[in-house]
Design brief:
314 residues, alpha/beta, Spore Coat Polysaccharide Biosynthesis Protein SpsA, Chain A, 2 domains, ten-stranded mixed β-sheet, 9 helices, 12 strands, 23% strand
Length: 314
């Protein structure tokens, strides 16, 4: 596969932004995989989001030339990545790959993302096929849809065996923020991530805004990323800050993008399903997770700030 080139004839300049918040060795492994890429015009930015045990010094030691940003406070997924995106654009990046610190790339992945991203100037974002690191036969996620049901979104391919149905590139509603490849032109027109979305659904919001402005969002199945999971939000535990933040941001998304009918649909699904979820989780002793969802919804509706200390975000 040839290397994609910019309008000036040189390879398009790509910046990879890796945000770390207490990721430790996992973050270092992510950067190792990026630096092993076979793409020739690459800058790597490590953004530390006020980690308790930062790995910035070790990352610099392993990878001379690594660019780093150290935030004095945890700015969340949106704010932390925005710091890296701004710096990357100022340094001349033509594309920015936002990559989760618990993900790893194949050497050819960035080149494939560039190829798809350069195929049409209306492409705002390209999403990789994200496979489970513990079982690469299965997808962690292909792409997503917006259905305004109880979780706002539908996750296409989540935990499914990889196969022909996930082998073709296609336009989609949104792609995962685990590995989202953004064009400079789109970032300049759409803006960066909305920092009101501290974490979760920020990529859904960004993709929705881009599509409202006439851009395309494309799933690129030949660009492969391996992903371990959501450790920063509590991993696979149901009772975690993830419940609060996703519920809160569902309301924020609906306020920004939904029609009156879509808002009503979301409200009806939440009213119908949350009591059933509570009863089901009561049996397993996990009802506190549903309580966190309800609190996130109510805080969003009432305009209350995120209880950062209570959720362990500071």
């Amino acid at each position: 596969m040839g290397t994609a080139v910019s309008s000036r004839g040189a390879p398009a300049r790509v910046a990879v932004v890796v945000l770390d918040w207490n990721g430790g060795e996992e973050t270092l492994a992510c950067i190792d995989s990026v630096r092993a890429s076979d793409y020739p015009a690459l800058d790597v930015w490590l953004v530390d989001n006020a980690s308790r045990a930062p790995v910035v010094d070790e990352a610099r030691r392993r990878h001379p030339g690594l660019r780093t940003i150290v935030n004095s406070r945890n700015l969340g997924y949106s704010g932390g990545n925005n710091a890296g995106i701004r710096a990357a654009l100022e340094a001349g990046a033509e594309f920015v790959l936002v990559l989760n610190n618990d993900a790893q790339l194949r050497p050819e992945t960035i080149g494939e993302l560039v190829r798809v991203g350069q195929g049409d100037t209306s492409v705002a974002a390209v999403g990789a096929k994200v496979l489970r690191a513990d079982d690469p036969r299965r997808l962690w996620l292909a792409y997503g849809e917006i259905n305004y049901r109880q979780s706002l979104v539908a996750l296409i391919g989540a935990d499914a065996l990889d196969g022909p149905e996930y082998a073709a590139a296609r336009d989609v509603a949104w792609v995962s923020g685990c590995a989202i490849f953004l064009s400079r032109a789109a970032l300049e027109r759409v803006g960066l991530f909305d920092e009101d979305f501290f974490a979760y659904h920020e990529e859904v919001d960004w993709c929705a805004t881009a599509r409202e402005r006439g851009f395309r969002i494309v799933f690129a199945p030949r660009a492969i990323v391996y992903h371990r999971g959501a450790a920063s939000s509590g991993g696979t535990r149901y009772v975690s800050r993830r419940q609060y933040l996703t519920a809160r941001n569902m309301i924020g998304f609906a306020r920004k993008h939904a029609s009156a009918g879509q808002r009503l649909k979301l409200a009806l699904f939440l009213c119908a399903t949350l009591p059933l979820q509570y009863l089901r989780r009561l049996v397993s002793g996990e009802q506190a997770g549903v309580e966190l969802k309800v609190r996130g919804i109510l805080d969003a509706l009432r305009g209350r700030p995120i209880p950062r200390a209570e959720l362990g975000l500071d």
